[in-house]
């Protein structure tokens, strides 16, 4: 049976852990050749490259250490993907960071870096990859936004602003490419089970004097009606569908995977 992404080349930013790694693994298992990108310890990066490489039948996956806050490194990453793998058919903009603070106390450098990595990097990567997609007659752009790209929460001004901007960028790019062979969509997850997210549960339990289960459902997931984590594999499946067969008419959408959060 032909795999869904057989013959395609994908570049996934922020893919050395969490959502990005799950997407990279899902793509590789469906036949894509995948370039990874992201920060982390040398051991963690090596493990991610080995896991994705194994899924591709290679010793390790190609990797770019590009810093998503630096446009010239983003352009170099896209060029490296095209040079090493022959194309960049699929671009997943997933890299992101977070910082929480009241707006009047929000450090300027933190705000600027969140905007750069969570939003502006998407623009630079799309700009670099799109000409090749058009020339080859196929392209899929998936921007990993957030439920916070559709609704807001307090103390997350930079993150909410960046993710709203990602949704707007997605729509604008989608309209520009609508008559051609490229699509551009956003995925908007709620709270996803990742090591960084799970690490928030214990401090919440201690702060409120409750069990970790209650801290999870009543405080961390208070706005997520299902009261359960979104799993990274669920986000990866959505990305796979958007990049696979029969997805060409899905364009300019912001698809929620949030357990009903934004339905309220």
Automatic annotation (TrEMBL):
<dbReference type="InterPro" id="IPR020904">
    <property type="entry name" value="Sc_DH/Rdtase_CS"/>
</dbReference>
<dbReference type="GO" id="GO:0003858">
    <property type="term" value="F:3-hydroxybutyrate dehydrogenase activity"/>
</dbReference>
<dbReference type="Pfam" id="PF13561">
    <property type="entry name" value="adh_short_C2"/>
</dbReference>
<comment type="similarity">
    <text>Belongs to the short-chain dehydrogenases/reductases (SDR) family.</text>
</comment>
<protein>
    <submittedName>
        <fullName>3-hydroxybutyrate dehydrogenase</fullName>
        <ecNumber>1.1.1.30</ecNumber>
    </submittedName>
</protein>
<dbReference type="InterPro" id="IPR011294">
    <property type="entry name" value="3-OHbutyrate_DH"/>
</dbReference>
<keyword id="KW-0560">Oxidoreductase</keyword>
<dbReference type="InterPro" id="IPR050259">
    <property type="entry name" value="SDR"/>
</dbReference>
<dbReference type="InterPro" id="IPR036291">
    <property type="entry name" value="NAD(P)-bd_dom_sf"/>
</dbReference>
<dbReference type="InterPro" id="IPR002347">
    <property type="entry name" value="SDR_fam"/>
</dbReference>
